[in-house]
Specification:
The protein is an alpha/beta fold. It contains seven helices and twelve strands. The strands form two sheets. A nine-stranded mixed beta sheet has the order 6-7-5-4-8-9-11-10-12, with helices on both faces. Strands 1-2-3 form a three-stranded antiparallel beta sheet, with no helix packed on it.
Length: 266
């Protein structure tokens, strides 16, 4: 089912998880840009390589918007994107999806990913993995895994950008647990930036126990979002739409709320 969102971009509703792929209140395109793409690029524009994990591919907004925005901002480095997707039946439907006009130049990339699960051009390489994201990430932990379908340099599995954009913790618990975040910690670079829309307290606790520090991005144009890093230093984001960045003090939350629990694998 198609859903027209606030910014006139269109998202879909997933009946299996009982959620839309994007926030109708924020707008599919605006949510993608302000909660994921712009914060990531604001911190990583000077990096020679963007090694990106997009959890999960869904309609492809994160991947396509990253490519579009990086090119628009004249990013000079290389971009490698890895993205798992559970629902193989979704992909053919995307060929007829009404994407925003801003992404028209990236639709050839989308078509290649749908048909071949792979796209490559100068300074850009994208792999789409079909299957359970947790199982796919286990293969990333094994650097010499024969299951990796393309010859992307194995050291790029230390991701410096992760879009944590799975369905919500209440609907898709497996991609928000302590064990899951421990895997993210293991496959991410020391300067990694994880972006997410979720403020779920138990999820934040799980990420904290796994070694991540959380910061709230107070947004002007969309609802507030969260980023994770491996250090307590407040990231410096130079973005007009972010009015403030505040650390989320999980240690204090745990102290004053003894009933706060993390999410764990069953």
């Amino acid at each position: 089912m198609q859903i027209l969102t606030k910014d006139s971009s269109v998202t879909l509703y997933n009946t299996s998880f009982g959620e839309a792929y994007h926030s109708a209140k924020d707008g599919a395109l605006q949510e993608t840009l302000h909660k994921h793409i712009l914060p990531a690029l604001s911190l990583k524009m000077q990096e020679p390589i963007l090694s990106v994990l997009d959890i999960c591919f869904g309609l492809g907004f994160n991947t396509l918007c990253l490519v579009h925005t990086a090119h628009s901002l004249r990013f000079k480095g290389k971009i490698f994107i890895h993205s798992p997707e559970l629902d193989s039946n979704l992909l053919p439907k995307l060929l007829k999806h009404p994407y925003p006009k801003e992404l028209e130049n990236e639709l050839a990339i989308l078509e290649s990913l749908i048909i071949q699960h792979y796209y490559k051009e100068q300074d850009l390489e994208i792999v789409l993995y079909l299957g359970n994201a947790r199982e796919i990430l286990k293969n990333f932990l094994a650097r010499d895994s024969k299951d990796t379908p393309y010859k992307i340099a194995q050291n790029l599995m230390h991701f410096n950008i992760i879009f944590q954009d799975a369905f919500s913790p209440t609907k898709n618990r497996d991609l928000w647990t302590y064990e899951y975040f421990k895997t993210l910690y293991a496959i991410s670079a020391e300067n990694t930036l994880i972006t997410t829309y979720s403020h779920h307290s138990c999820m934040l606790y799980s990420a904290y126990l796994a070694g991540f520090y959380a910061f709230k991005l107070h947004q002007k144009y969309v609802r507030d979002s969260v980023i994770f890093t491996k250090t307590q230093k407040i990231p410096k984001l130079s973005l007009e739409n972010i009015s403030q960045i505040t650390p989320i003090n999980l240690a204090h939350k745990i102290k004053i709320n003894p009933n706060l629990w993390g999410l764990y694998d069953d």
